[in-house]
Design brief:
Radius of gyration: 20 Å
Family: Belongs to the TRAFAC class TrmE-Era-EngA-EngB-Septin-like GTPase superfamily. Era GTPase family.
InterPro entries: G_ERA_dom, GTP-bd, GTPase_Era-like, KH_dom-like_a/b, KH_dom_type_2, KH_sf_prok-type, P-loop_NTPase, Small_GTP-bd
Helix content: 25-40%
CATH class of the largest domain: Alpha Beta
Region (G4): 123-126
Keywords: Cell membrane, Cytoplasm, GTP-binding, Membrane, Nucleotide-binding, Ribosome biogenesis, RNA-binding, rRNA-binding
Binding site for GTP: 12-19, 59-63, 123-126
Strand order of the largest sheet: 2-3-1-4-5-6
Order of helices and strands: EHEEHEHEHEHHEEHHEH
Number of helices: 9
Largest sheet: 6 strands, mixed
Number of strands: 9
Amino acid sequence: MTTRCGFVALIGEPNAGKSTLTNHMVGAKVSIVTHKVQTTRARIRGVALEGDSQIVFVDTPGLFRPRRRLDRAMVAAAWGGAADADIIVLLVEAHRGITEGVTRILDGLSELPKGRKIALAINKIDKVEAPQLLKLTKDLNDRFPFSETFMISAEKGHGTGALRAWLAENLPEGPWLYPEDQIADLPLRMIAAEVTREKLTLRLHQELPYQLTVETENWEERKDGSARIDQVIYVMRDGHKGIVLGKKGETIKAISKLAREELEEFLGRRIHLFLQVKVRPGWLEESERYSEMGLDFKDGN
Protein backbone atom coordinates (compact mmCIF):
# COMPACT_ATOMS: atom_id res chain seq x y z
CA MET A 1 0.00 0.00 0.00
CA THR A 2 1.34 3.44 -0.99
CA THR A 3 0.64 6.03 1.64
CA ARG A 4 0.75 9.77 1.20
CA CYS A 5 1.26 12.50 3.78
CA GLY A 6 1.91 16.21 3.71
CA PHE A 7 1.09 19.69 4.93
CA VAL A 8 -1.69 21.83 3.49
CA ALA A 9 -1.64 25.54 4.37
CA LEU A 10 -4.95 27.36 4.30
CA ILE A 11 -4.37 31.06 3.71
CA GLY A 12 -6.65 34.03 3.17
CA GLU A 13 -7.94 37.22 4.72
CA PRO A 14 -9.29 37.24 8.28
CA ASN A 15 -12.76 35.62 8.43
CA ALA A 16 -12.36 33.90 5.03
CA GLY A 17 -13.39 30.60 6.65
CA LYS A 18 -10.02 28.92 7.22
CA SER A 19 -10.79 27.73 10.75
CA THR A 20 -14.27 26.53 9.76
CA LEU A 21 -12.78 24.56 6.86
CA THR A 22 -10.06 23.05 9.08
CA ASN A 23 -12.64 21.90 11.62
CA HIS A 24 -14.92 20.52 8.89
CA MET A 25 -12.12 18.59 7.20
CA VAL A 26 -10.81 17.17 10.47
CA GLY A 27 -14.29 16.41 11.81
CA ALA A 28 -13.60 18.02 15.18
CA LYS A 29 -13.07 21.46 16.60
CA VAL A 30 -9.32 22.07 16.63
CA SER A 31 -9.40 25.72 15.61
CA ILE A 32 -11.12 28.69 17.16
CA VAL A 33 -14.13 29.84 15.11
CA THR A 34 -15.73 33.22 15.80
CA HIS A 35 -17.23 35.99 13.74
CA LYS A 36 -14.55 38.36 14.98
CA VAL A 37 -11.51 38.74 12.75
CA GLN A 38 -7.95 37.74 13.65
CA THR A 39 -8.94 35.06 16.16
CA THR A 40 -6.45 32.44 14.98
CA ARG A 41 -3.03 33.33 16.36
CA ALA A 42 -0.93 30.19 16.15
CA ARG A 43 -0.52 27.86 13.19
CA ILE A 44 -2.91 25.14 14.32
CA ARG A 45 -2.51 21.77 12.68
CA GLY A 46 -5.52 19.52 12.22
CA VAL A 47 -5.02 16.00 10.90
CA ALA A 48 -7.49 14.37 8.48
CA LEU A 49 -7.45 10.95 6.83
CA GLU A 50 -8.64 10.40 3.27
CA GLY A 51 -8.11 6.89 1.92
CA ASP A 52 -4.39 6.11 2.19
CA SER A 53 -3.50 9.81 2.65
CA GLN A 54 -2.94 11.76 5.84
CA ILE A 55 -3.62 15.47 5.32
CA VAL A 56 -2.10 17.82 7.91
CA PHE A 57 -3.91 21.16 7.79
CA VAL A 58 -2.01 24.26 8.83
CA ASP A 59 -4.67 26.84 9.73
CA THR A 60 -2.76 30.11 9.52
CA PRO A 61 -3.73 33.49 10.96
CA GLY A 62 -5.59 35.70 8.50
CA LEU A 63 -3.37 37.83 6.28
CA PHE A 64 -3.98 41.52 6.84
CA ARG A 65 -2.03 44.78 7.03
CA PRO A 66 -0.21 44.54 10.39
CA ARG A 67 -0.05 47.47 12.83
CA ARG A 68 1.25 46.06 16.12
CA ARG A 69 3.95 43.58 17.13
CA LEU A 70 1.33 40.84 17.62
CA ASP A 71 -0.12 41.57 14.17
CA ARG A 72 3.32 41.35 12.54
CA ALA A 73 4.12 38.07 14.30
CA MET A 74 0.74 36.64 13.15
CA VAL A 75 1.31 37.64 9.52
CA ALA A 76 4.85 36.21 9.61
CA ALA A 77 3.41 32.95 10.99
CA ALA A 78 0.86 32.83 8.17
CA TRP A 79 3.46 33.26 5.41
CA GLY A 80 5.78 30.85 7.24
CA GLY A 81 3.03 28.24 7.20
CA ALA A 82 2.52 28.76 3.47
CA ALA A 83 6.23 28.58 2.67
CA ASP A 84 6.63 25.28 4.58
CA ALA A 85 3.57 23.55 3.10
CA ASP A 86 3.38 20.94 0.32
CA ILE A 87 0.13 22.44 -0.99
CA ILE A 88 -1.39 25.90 -0.43
CA VAL A 89 -5.11 26.60 -0.58
CA LEU A 90 -6.17 30.24 -0.90
CA LEU A 91 -9.64 30.91 0.48
CA VAL A 92 -11.54 33.85 -0.99
CA GLU A 93 -15.01 34.90 0.16
CA ALA A 94 -17.39 34.76 -2.81
CA HIS A 95 -19.43 37.82 -1.81
CA ARG A 96 -16.39 40.01 -1.10
CA GLY A 97 -14.48 39.15 -4.26
CA ILE A 98 -11.02 40.49 -5.07
CA THR A 99 -10.40 42.93 -2.24
CA GLU A 100 -7.23 44.92 -1.63
CA GLY A 101 -6.23 42.21 0.86
CA VAL A 102 -6.73 39.40 -1.68
CA THR A 103 -4.64 41.36 -4.20
CA ARG A 104 -1.80 41.62 -1.64
CA ILE A 105 -1.99 37.85 -1.00
CA LEU A 106 -1.85 37.10 -4.76
CA ASP A 107 1.27 39.27 -4.98
CA GLY A 108 2.78 37.34 -2.05
CA LEU A 109 1.98 33.98 -3.69
CA SER A 110 3.78 35.13 -6.86
CA GLU A 111 6.96 35.59 -4.80
CA LEU A 112 6.97 32.03 -3.40
CA PRO A 113 9.27 29.44 -5.05
CA LYS A 114 7.77 27.91 -8.19
CA GLY A 115 6.70 24.27 -8.50
CA ARG A 116 4.36 24.17 -5.52
CA LYS A 117 0.69 23.29 -6.04
CA ILE A 118 -1.58 26.20 -5.11
CA ALA A 119 -5.35 25.70 -5.24
CA LEU A 120 -8.13 28.28 -5.06
CA ALA A 121 -11.18 27.68 -2.88
CA ILE A 122 -13.98 30.19 -3.30
CA ASN A 123 -15.90 30.00 -0.02
CA LYS A 124 -19.43 31.04 1.04
CA ILE A 125 -20.76 30.31 -2.46
CA ASP A 126 -24.34 30.34 -1.14
CA LYS A 127 -24.05 34.14 -0.74
CA VAL A 128 -23.82 34.96 -4.47
CA GLU A 129 -25.54 34.11 -7.77
CA ALA A 130 -23.90 31.78 -10.32
CA PRO A 131 -22.89 34.46 -12.90
CA GLN A 132 -21.03 36.46 -10.20
CA LEU A 133 -19.30 33.27 -9.05
CA LEU A 134 -18.15 32.35 -12.54
CA LYS A 135 -16.81 35.87 -13.17
CA LEU A 136 -14.89 35.84 -9.89
CA THR A 137 -13.42 32.42 -10.74
CA LYS A 138 -12.26 33.67 -14.15
CA ASP A 139 -10.83 36.94 -12.75
CA LEU A 140 -8.83 35.13 -10.04
CA ASN A 141 -7.47 32.51 -12.45
CA ASP A 142 -6.50 35.28 -14.89
CA ARG A 143 -4.43 36.85 -12.10
CA PHE A 144 -2.72 33.68 -10.86
CA PRO A 145 -2.12 30.19 -12.37
CA PHE A 146 -3.95 28.09 -9.75
CA SER A 147 -3.49 24.31 -10.00
CA GLU A 148 -7.22 23.75 -9.37
CA THR A 149 -10.30 25.76 -8.37
CA PHE A 150 -13.01 24.64 -5.93
CA MET A 151 -16.30 26.27 -5.04
CA ILE A 152 -17.21 25.47 -1.47
CA SER A 153 -19.22 26.31 1.61
CA ALA A 154 -16.95 25.44 4.55
CA GLU A 155 -19.83 25.96 6.97
CA LYS A 156 -22.30 23.67 5.17
CA GLY A 157 -19.73 21.25 3.74
CA HIS A 158 -20.64 21.84 0.06
CA GLY A 159 -17.75 21.03 -2.27
CA THR A 160 -15.37 20.14 0.56
CA GLY A 161 -15.35 16.43 -0.37
CA ALA A 162 -13.92 17.20 -3.82
CA LEU A 163 -11.28 19.49 -2.29
CA ARG A 164 -10.30 16.86 0.25
CA ALA A 165 -10.03 14.13 -2.41
CA TRP A 166 -7.85 16.36 -4.62
CA LEU A 167 -5.56 17.20 -1.71
CA ALA A 168 -5.22 13.51 -0.80
CA GLU A 169 -4.22 12.63 -4.39
CA ASN A 170 -1.67 15.42 -4.70
CA LEU A 171 0.28 15.03 -1.47
CA PRO A 172 3.75 13.50 -1.70
CA GLU A 173 4.19 9.78 -1.12
CA GLY A 174 5.51 8.95 2.33
CA PRO A 175 4.67 7.50 5.75
CA TRP A 176 2.04 9.08 7.97
CA LEU A 177 3.39 11.56 10.51
CA TYR A 178 0.74 11.08 13.19
CA PRO A 179 -1.09 8.12 14.79
CA GLU A 180 -4.38 7.26 13.10
CA ASP A 181 -6.52 8.58 15.97
CA GLN A 182 -4.72 11.91 16.44
CA ILE A 183 -6.56 14.96 15.13
CA ALA A 184 -4.22 17.78 16.16
CA ASP A 185 -0.60 18.27 17.08
CA LEU A 186 -1.30 21.11 19.48
CA PRO A 187 -0.66 20.31 23.13
CA LEU A 188 -3.90 19.90 25.09
CA ARG A 189 -2.88 22.81 27.31
CA MET A 190 -2.93 25.12 24.29
CA ILE A 191 -6.21 23.72 22.95
CA ALA A 192 -7.78 24.32 26.39
CA ALA A 193 -6.50 27.93 26.40
CA GLU A 194 -7.87 28.47 22.87
CA VAL A 195 -11.31 27.20 23.92
CA THR A 196 -11.46 29.69 26.80
CA ARG A 197 -10.19 32.50 24.57
CA GLU A 198 -12.94 31.72 22.05
CA LYS A 199 -15.61 32.04 24.75
CA LEU A 200 -14.11 35.37 25.84
CA THR A 201 -14.02 36.60 22.25
CA LEU A 202 -17.66 35.68 21.66
CA ARG A 203 -18.87 37.18 24.93
CA LEU A 204 -16.89 40.43 24.93
CA HIS A 205 -16.98 43.12 22.30
CA GLN A 206 -15.00 46.02 20.82
CA GLU A 207 -11.19 45.92 21.03
CA LEU A 208 -10.84 43.91 24.22
CA PRO A 209 -10.52 40.39 22.71
CA TYR A 210 -7.32 41.35 20.91
CA GLN A 211 -5.83 42.74 24.10
CA LEU A 212 -6.16 39.60 26.15
CA THR A 213 -4.55 36.20 26.08
CA VAL A 214 -5.20 32.96 27.96
CA GLU A 215 -2.57 30.58 29.32
CA THR A 216 -3.04 27.17 30.91
CA GLU A 217 -0.87 27.40 34.01
CA ASN A 218 -1.56 24.01 35.51
CA TRP A 219 -3.08 20.69 34.37
CA GLU A 220 -3.62 18.08 37.05
CA GLU A 221 -4.85 14.57 36.25
CA ARG A 222 -7.07 13.19 39.03
CA LYS A 223 -7.53 9.59 40.17
CA ASP A 224 -11.23 9.58 39.23
CA GLY A 225 -10.31 10.25 35.57
CA SER A 226 -11.20 13.94 35.67
CA ALA A 227 -8.73 16.80 35.27
CA ARG A 228 -8.23 20.13 37.02
CA ILE A 229 -7.22 22.95 34.69
CA ASP A 230 -6.00 26.32 36.01
CA GLN A 231 -5.87 29.16 33.52
CA VAL A 232 -4.85 32.81 33.65
CA ILE A 233 -6.48 35.48 31.49
CA TYR A 234 -4.01 38.33 30.96
CA VAL A 235 -5.49 41.76 30.22
CA MET A 236 -3.81 45.13 29.60
CA ARG A 237 -5.68 47.38 32.06
CA ASP A 238 -7.66 47.35 35.31
CA GLY A 239 -10.74 48.41 33.38
CA HIS A 240 -10.40 45.34 31.18
CA LYS A 241 -10.26 43.13 34.26
CA GLY A 242 -13.62 44.51 35.37
CA ILE A 243 -15.14 43.79 31.94
CA VAL A 244 -13.91 40.18 31.99
CA LEU A 245 -15.12 39.59 35.57
CA GLY A 246 -18.49 41.29 35.02
CA LYS A 247 -20.99 42.39 37.65
CA LYS A 248 -20.58 40.17 40.73
CA GLY A 249 -18.35 37.91 38.64
CA GLU A 250 -21.22 36.89 36.34
CA THR A 251 -19.27 37.21 33.07
CA ILE A 252 -16.30 35.11 34.17
CA LYS A 253 -18.68 32.47 35.60
CA ALA A 254 -20.58 32.24 32.30
CA ILE A 255 -17.33 32.03 30.29
CA SER A 256 -15.93 29.37 32.64
CA LYS A 257 -19.12 27.27 32.32
CA LEU A 258 -19.13 27.44 28.49
CA ALA A 259 -15.41 26.63 28.23
CA ARG A 260 -15.69 23.76 30.73
CA GLU A 261 -18.67 22.23 28.89
CA GLU A 262 -16.86 22.36 25.55
CA LEU A 263 -13.67 20.89 27.02
CA GLU A 264 -15.66 18.06 28.63
CA GLU A 265 -17.27 17.26 25.28
CA PHE A 266 -13.93 17.47 23.46
CA LEU A 267 -12.01 15.36 25.99
CA GLY A 268 -14.87 13.01 26.92
CA ARG A 269 -14.46 13.39 30.69
CA ARG A 270 -15.13 15.68 33.64
CA ILE A 271 -13.14 18.91 33.82
CA HIS A 272 -12.70 21.25 36.78
CA LEU A 273 -11.82 24.63 35.27
CA PHE A 274 -10.50 27.53 37.35
CA LEU A 275 -9.98 30.95 35.77
CA GLN A 276 -8.02 33.90 37.12
CA VAL A 277 -7.77 37.37 35.59
CA LYS A 278 -4.47 39.25 35.91
CA VAL A 279 -3.58 42.74 34.72
CA ARG A 280 -0.33 42.72 32.77
CA PRO A 281 0.03 46.01 30.87
CA GLY A 282 2.96 44.92 28.71
CA TRP A 283 1.97 41.35 27.76
CA LEU A 284 1.97 42.26 24.06
CA GLU A 285 5.70 42.96 24.38
CA GLU A 286 6.65 39.82 26.37
CA SER A 287 8.38 37.03 24.45
CA GLU A 288 6.98 34.30 26.77
CA ARG A 289 3.40 35.18 25.80
CA TYR A 290 4.29 34.72 22.12
CA SER A 291 5.88 31.32 22.83
CA GLU A 292 2.65 30.23 24.55
CA MET A 293 0.73 31.19 21.39
CA GLY A 294 3.17 29.34 19.13
CA LEU A 295 4.38 32.59 17.55
CA ASP A 296 7.91 33.93 17.13
CA PHE A 297 8.48 37.11 19.15
CA LYS A 298 11.24 38.22 16.74
CA ASP A 299 8.80 38.15 13.80
CA GLY A 300 6.97 41.07 15.40
CA ASN A 301 9.87 43.46 14.89
